[in-house]
Amino acid sequence: MEPIKDELNLEEITAIFNAQKANQSVVANQPIKQRRKKLLALKKAVEITYRDAIKEALFKDMGKPSAEVDLTEIFPITSEIKHTLSHLNSWTYKQRVSTPIAFLGASSYIKYEPKGVCLIIAPWNFPVNLTLAPLVSAIAAGNTVILKPSEMTPHTSKVLKTLVAEVFNINEVALIEGAVQTSTDLLSLPFNHIFFTGSPAIGKIVMSAAAKHLTSVTLELGGKSPTIVDETASIKSAAKRIAWGKFVNAGQICIAPDYVYVHKSKYEALVTEFKKVLDSFYDSDANTSKSYACVVNGNHKSRISSIIEDAKKHGATITYGGKIDKNSNAIEPTVLTNVSMDSRVMQEEIFGPILPIISYENIEEVIASVNANEKPLALYIYSKKNKNVQYILNNTRAGGSCINNNGVHFYNNNLPFGGSNNSGIGKSHGFFGFQEFSNARGVLRQNIPGALEILTPPYTSFKEKIINLTIKWLS
């Protein structure tokens, strides 16, 4: 099948939507083996057929290293598909639940049914992963889907468009390219579910548009994800793991460690270790390293540059990196110390290769600072002391957390992934993603006449006594 043309108007978009709407019942009632067949075809396309094309496109769009594409774009999708295929039969089978004795003679179960026509709006930072991984859940649940990738990674979007057109019929899955107007046109349609990944500001726009049709939403957003390194932590492993989690994809990750609070007794050691780790990662010059990506475009480069300059004006010291390449979109990994809490780097989500490090003495002050902000998408703890770990977990709120690591919870398909309030609504991955794209339909079946049969009108004093006994003993 030929890919959809580059730009569609509202009439053309509506025609695709209506085709999927007309076909949604057919797709929903296909045997489970058909869903499995689609997922296997998608897996082959990503893992084999289009793998090299995806790598080439991502290098053109963001300078992503080949190995980084495999780790952060290809693996999450193939892993999600394999996990889904292993569990799809059990997810889609009737989920038997107990029935209260007051309803003796009946049985109950939950039937997970498709929501219908779904829209997936993906971001630019992981344009393959965050477009296709939600698609896996949507297909597993039996939906039809329209995909809207970001216009900021055009080469990757082109490859995805060809891939989708080859694997799927347009009345089942379609990919539509475009910018703001295309998104606006899509959001005007009465989808049954919208899955959006992006910033909280745009998430509010999506939710507002969805509310006009009472469309359910999954919002995977972001925020400032704190990292806490206490006095018992292993500094060597903490530095290596934080550095990888922060500077992979040039820091353009919603779950990247946004800033680090480190106990004053380990502050100097951590800063020193960061320098060693970053030198070993990127051969002392990240901007020419084949293991380091670029920021996505000139506008983003300017934004990151201005954040660094603002931090310096507020007294911050560039302890490592900070070099900005004039001829490309490369910005060195940048470690900041002596950071002011009033500077932009501590007020905005960074979404780039800047890591502020702040010394602390009292963990209560750290927790108060974290809780004064919106709930983060992730919170990371480095500690060898379980009492400290549990204290931090119990007294903070976050979408997800790692202990003595960061970011890797995203890759565990058995864990729900998502934020809370400002950092997101709903969860994804594995069964949790399947649930987002499904309606849990409760079904009670009356098999034989039950006790409630005798409690219908007219209500007598005898029936009232039976009702009272039911409330007292059977509720």
Topology:
Layout: H1 10-28, H2 32-49, H3 51-62, H4 66-92, E1 95-97, E2 106-114, E3 117-121, H5 129-141, E4 144-148, H6 154-167, E5 173-175, H7 180-187, E6 193-197, H8 200-211, E7 216-220, E8 226-229, H9 235-247, E9 259-263, H10 267-282, H11 298-313, E10 317-320, E11 334-337, H12 344-347, E12 354-360, H13 363-371, E13 378-382, H14 386-395, E14 400-403, E15 424-425, H15 430-436, E16 438-446, H16 461-473
Parallel strand pairs: 3-4, 3-6, 4-5, 6-7, 8-9, 8-13, 9-12, 11-12, 13-14
Antiparallel strand pairs: 1-2, 2-16, 7-15, 10-11
Give the radius of gyration.
25 Å
Structure annotation, total helices:
16
The largest sheet is: 7 strands, mixed
Strand order of the largest sheet: 10-11-12-9-8-13-14
Task: Describe the protein in words.
44% of the residues lie in helices and 17% in strands. The chain has 475 residues and is an alpha/beta fold. Helix 2 (32-49) runs antiparallel to helix 4 and helix 3 (51-62) packs across helix 4. The termini are far apart. The mean pLDDT is 96.
